[in-house]
Structures are given as C-alpha cells and as structure tokens.
Design a protein that fits this description.
The protein has 22 helices and 20 strands. The protein has 694 residues and is an alpha+beta fold.
Length: 694
Amino acid sequence: MKQLESYFGSLVFDDKVMKSRLSSDVYKSLKRTISDGKELDISVANSVAQAMKDWAIEQGATHYTHWFQPMTGVTAEKHDSFISPDSDGRIIMEFKGKELVKGEPDASSFPSGGLRATCEARGYTAWDPTSYAFIKDKCLCIPTALCSYGGQALDKKTPLLRSMQAINKQALRVLKLFGNENVTSVKTTVGPEQEYFLVDKDMYDKRKDLIYTGRTLFGASAPKGQELEDHYFGVIKPRVQAFMNDLNEELWKLGILAKTEHNEVAPAQHELAPIFATTNIAADHNQITMEIMQKVAKKHNLVCLLHEKPFKGVNGSGKHNNWSISTNTGINLLEPGDTPIENAQFLLFLTAVIKAVDEYQDLLRISVASAGNDFRLGANEAPPAIISIFVGDELQAVLDAIETDKPLLSKASGSLKIGADVLPKLPKDSTDRNRTSPFAFTGNKFEFRALGSSESISCANIMLNTAVAEELKQFADVLEKSKNFKEDLHQLVKKTIIEHKRIIFNGNGYDESWVKEATKRGLLNLKSTPEALPYYLHDKNKQLFTSHNVYTLDEIHARYEIAQEHYQKIVNIEALTVLDMVNKDLLPAISKYTKSLADTVAIKKSLSANVDYESAQLDDISNGLAKAYSLKLDLEKVLESKPTSSVEEISLYYKEKVLPLMEEIRTVIDGIEAKVDKSFWPYPSYGDLLFGVR
C-alpha cells in the first residue's frame, strides 16, 4: 500500500489545496463564508470555481455534479462535463462561479410530501462551502442543499444545517454567561459507527429477496449462528481483509477518517468506525462510506448488505451516532472538566441534554423509525424502542447529590460542596458501557445507539440538535435575568434533574422489568414505525421546529407524509417479493420434492420395502405445502383489500395485516426447508450465505 500520508485526502478540494491555489484575498473571503456563513461574492465564486476546475482536471475529472441528499435516504447527482464550445468549433474546459454556487436539477421525481405538484419540476441546489468538494469516478462532486422553486427544503442537508445553526445560537448565549467571550461558534460533532454484512455475490444473485428488499424473507436457521460468540472481534478472513484494505484506501483518498474495523457479533457481520467530524460533514462522509462500501465489495465478488435485519435469528445492523458539542476554541462541552467553573458549565449542558431527551423522546424515536429498524429495536440485540439515558454510577451519584443537597464523597478529597463546585474530576471512562441503552453517556459524548444501519444520520441529528437548542434557550432565558448567577444556576440544574430524572435508566434495557418500570414512569414505548410517526405532528413538536426555523409547518407535514409512504412502499415491495418467490420458485420446488417422495413410496411399496420415513415426510411436507398455499392466497387478498383512506390507517394495515401474514408464510416455508433435499431447494441457504465468505 502506498504511504498513507501521500494520498490521504488526495481527491478532496480541502483547505490545504484552497490555500495553495487561491489568492490570499479570495482564500480569506471563502474562509469567512465557511466560518461565519457570509454570502460569497460572485467574483470570489468565479475564482474558486476556476481553481476547483483546474485542480479537478489535474486529478482526471471530466465532469462535475451538485451532489445532494434528497428525502430518499440516498444521494443524488447529475453529471455535466466541463466542456463548452468555442468560436472555432472546438471546445474549452469551463466552470464558472454561478455553476459552482447554484444548480438546477429536475426535482420532479424526488419525494416532496406535497410541497409541490408532480408537474412542478424545478428544483435548486445550493453549494454547502462548509463541506469540501471531492472527486468520485472522475467527477467533481460539490456538496449541496436542495430546495424547491418556492424555497422549501427538499433534502436532508438543509434542515441539518438549520439545526446546527439553532444549537450554535443558543449555546453561545449560555457560554457568554460563563464568561466565554472568546467563543464565536459552537458545533455538534458526530462519529457514526457503521455495521454491515458481507455475502458472496454469486449467492446473493440467486436470492430474489436480497436483490429486491435487502433482507432475506425466507431462510431456515443454519445449525450454527452466533451462539459461540467466536466471530466477535475474531480473526478477519483474508477475503474480508482484502475488502477492508481497499475500502480504507478509497475512503482515505476522500479524506474520510476511517479508523476502526472489526468483526461484529453475527457471522458475516462487520463494523467500520470513523473519527469525529462536524455533523454535516459526518453526514456527508457516512453517505459516501455506504456507497463506497457497496462499490468496493463488488470488486471482491462480494455484496455489502446495509439492511437493519438481513437475516432472521442473528443480530441485525445499527449505526451508533456518537454525538458531542464543541466550541471553536477546542472545548468539548460534554467533557466533565477539572475546575469548578467548567464543572458547572458541563452540568448545565448535561442537564440540557437530559431534559431534551425526556421532553422529545418521541422525536428521537421517530428519527430512527423505519420498516427495517422495526425488526431490531427491542429485540434483545439493539436498544429497546423505549428512549432512555444511561449516565453511569459516578455521574448518577453527582446528580443525586445535587437533587438532595447532600455532600458527595470523593475518594480523592473526601467531600465536595454542592452547587457549582459539585462535580468531581471524572476520568474519561467514568463508567462501564451499557450496550442496552439507546442513549448512553460515554465519557465526553452521548452514543445514540438506536439508529438503523441503512439510514442517513441527518434525521437523528436534526432532532437532537433542535431539542437541545430549545433547552439551552430556556436555560439562557432564565439565567440572563439572574441576580445571583451561582445560586440560580444551582437551582436550575437541581430543578431540571428532579423534573426529568425519569428518563435516566442505568440498568439492563433488555430486561422485561424495564418495560414495566418505563410504563410507570410515563415513558413512551413506540414499538413500530406506524405507532411512532403520528407524534411528528404533535403541537409541541411543530412549535419546536418552527420556533428554531429548522422546519416550516409545510416541511414538517411533508416529512411526515414521506415517512409514512416510505414505510408502506417498503412493506408492499416485500409482500410482493414473498408472493413472487412463493408462486414461481418455492411452491413448485416443494411440489417437485413431494412428487419425488411419492414416486419413492410407490416404488418401495411395490418391493414390499419399509416406507415409514418417506410416508411421514410426504405427509408432513404435503400438509405444509397446502398451508403455505392457503396463506399465500390470504396474502394476495389482504394486499388487494388495503384501505385507501389516511396514511396512518394504511401504515397500520401493513403492520397489523400484511407483515403477520408474511411471517406466517415464512414460518411454514422455513419449516419445510429444514426437511427438503438441498438439491431441490431453489435458493442458497443461511449456511451458504453466512459462512460462504472464506
């Protein structure tokens, strides 16, 4: 492998490249735009575009695209070449500031949730200068936001940037109360851990369910699963390691700080974790990472599965969203710190997060709601669908001491005063990790563990940023009027802990007793996407988004409609795939096997041989075949009878009528698969898929 330092970020138009290629004045103007959000002058944009084009062509690029993230969950791009005709009938390579700053893709076929009519195709992309341009497949990719002709956000990036702006505004108000006059900006940072499966492409190509839906809709369990726990952190297989090596190289070229790689719990499951980045950049990088994973896998005759639950009976895949807040002066606001003033500041930000998660637990649940993730949450392999916070024993003792106004004993100094001086110096890992908690404090950050592996991280961070911004606003409103800052601060922190301690749970989230306890505490247990989504439209949530200018009312309703429709489409595609597999492959294969058994019975009977095994098999499988056929007819009827009224009713219908029938059919078919001669079965087995990569 080439020296990493020589090619890391080589395909990124980053600060180093800009500094070397732009004039001092242009560079400074661009940096002001990036740091302060100032509008870019067209003359500066022209200079940046020229330098960007020249650099891209030197790297082998022939085209450029405004790379954006519509509400499909994946990225979008329309490529235009740099060529323009000259007066002699030849070409020149051209790229102007107006093309850098603004694009106009056809937006008619992207989800809009009613923000515009289907016939209204105009959409605009606007350059996000805070996220560096990069080269992918000989195309200069310019990260952009997407909006409609009327200015409504049609993407995931725009509201994410708005939420970052909201938390920056309110955090600065709070920090000024602590005398931090040198802090000019506050940004949230994220490090999203990405789980995934790798399967052999030849096996994948024989599975319609994987091709159409990303998960197996049928499949009897293999004799071995994950019960020996020998795959977790185990030796990486050579073929997988070769994939990881190539993946790292491609990501590093794009300036993505891929850091950690290892085998996960389930057979064929793995994880990649990056170093923290500013949230919008982390979101961009994670989208690129998922795309590059799938491309690199194919080069190794593998397929990368990003579905939350590709295989029944083994752990699914998540995406742990490690979230923190940092200042432009390099201070992590969720770092406990050493001195009393820093401790008090940390406590205020900590309790703001606690209050935000409690008051907006419904929005955090919505942010991870999807048809795929419904198979994970609460399934003893991922956090429960009940949102709660884990803080650990040491920090819990601090919160208890503040609540009760009792001294907190410290091993180091005997005792500490209660108030602004309360928090003892905590080591970074002040507590064990709690893998059953959906929202765990891990030393200097919160790990939101409930996000699904295939989803964009934008929605979760929009919800989190905005909710915390609201609590910081409320805190600032109180403290800015304070006559006795230290005492009022203590009372505010104490009051917040008392009123919102119900959201803190440091125990085993998989234990059934927690479900009962959470119910007593009044916490929500939204087990499925159709149950969670209606909370989007609650008045308090509308007020939250509109008051911080993250979403307009129209944009809220649009995202609600899109989420409902997406759920329905996913389940409908899966149901149609079940019918396709059953009608064209599974029932014919089972019927063929029963004929073989029947022929064997007839021959052996003519020879007066014992037919106990064959007869028992024939009866058992014939009964299963009849049951599967009957259930198949039921599923066809249910799909034909789906309601056409409200989106809520349709989603619940899919959850309560369609999915259970699909599962019933699967149970019968999987039971038959376990008994049928492998040569008759039309699809690779779980054993083939999970253990086929060597």
